[in-house]
Amino acid sequence: MISNKNIDGGKGFDWGLTSEDYAKYRDIYPPELYSRLRELGVAADGTSWLDLGTGTGILPQNLYNPNAKITGVDIAEQQIETAKEIAQKNGWNITYFASPAESTGLPDSSFECITAAQCFWYFDREKMQEEIRRMLKPHGKFIKIFMDWCLDDEIARKSTDLVTDYNSNWAPDNSGEGDLYDDLFDGRITEEFYCDIPFTRESWHGRMCACRGTLASMSSEQFANWCKAHTDMLSAYPESFTVKHKIYISYFTL
User: Fold this and answer.
1) Given this model, what pLDDT does residue 24 score?
2) Which of 149, 152, 178, 219 has the most CB atoms less than 10 A away?
3) 24/39 Cα distance (integer angstroms)
């Protein structure tokens, strides 16, 4: 269980509870993002790459390169176990272990690239600045990624409102967008673009189940009631649709 006074009013949440849905429904980053990350050197031949807050390993799975040394860490042990199972099933040589991002114990100057997707606002920012600089090799690159649905999209807005109806502590506006414009790393560059992500009613419901405001933090009764209400809401829409998202990439070179 994680709690942070700056997130959801300090209400605890447990990403481990979402591991199955997370692995199944949160693998939704668009090809444009992966192409840009490759251009920035993520998982390039002969390099070492660390993915912080890796969850079930979505980035390492989609950017896997057998000619790169890939490591993923996450504080949620159940998420890491799921990532290991997926890697083993596919024959991918990826090292995963459970650890707070602020104290991985990994050696100094170990990585050409470090990434953090959808997670940096959960970390102690000042500690992470020191830890990232410690682990990067000279001229290494740190990349933050954030993607969120846009509230001018009708389905996204109604789904968001429904979560807050059942979990008033959830603060969806605490998106982490501000962290992409922080001043922790001088010389950072920020890019952003929009993308329509395809979903079915099932996969969008699953995506919402794997957000912090639902399965990770609702009681069993709250979650069951929200599931029914959300399924009923989605029944008014076509079986397949897209949801508008905005994607941010922020990076700096040591």
Assistant:
1) 84
2) 149
3) 27
Instruction: Give the tens place of pLDDT for each residue, 96-112.
Output: 999 999 999 999 999 99
Nearest one of 119, 111, 218 to 163, comparing CA atoms: 218
What confidence category does residue 120 fall into, taking pLDDT thresholds of 50, 70 and 90?
Answer: confident
Is the CB of residue 55 less than 8 Å from the CB of residue 83?
A: yes
Number of helical (H) and strand (E) elements in the chain, helices listed first: 8, 7
Q: Which residue(s) pair with 209 in the sheet?
A: none
Separation CA 183–CA 43 (nearest Å): 26
- CB of 29 within 8 A of CB of 54? no
In whole angstroms, give the CA distance from residue 22 to residue 57.
Answer: 10
- Dihedral sign for Cα atoms in the order 107, 46, 68, 124: positive
Separation CA 156–CA 71 (nearest Å)? 33
What is the residue-wise DSSP string for 11-54?
Answer: --B-GGGGHHHHHHH-----HHHHHHHHHTTTT-TT-EEEEET-
For residues 20 and 113, give the distance between their C-alpha atoms in angstroms, rounded to a whole number: 28
Q: Between 53 and 187, where is the model more confident?
A: 53
Handedness of CA 15, 21, 22, 25 (dihedral sign): negative
Residue that has been written with the tokens 């090809």 in this structure: 31
Helix (H, G, I), strand (E, B) or coil at 137: strand
The model carries a pTM of 0.87
Residue 137's DSSP bridge partners are none
Q: Are the beta carbons of 60 and 116 closer than 8 angstroms?
A: no
CA dihedral for 250, 40, 104, 8, sign (positive or negative): positive
The edge-to-edge listing of strands for the beta sheet with 69-74 is 94-98, 69-74, 48-52, 111-117, 136-149, 240-253, 189-200
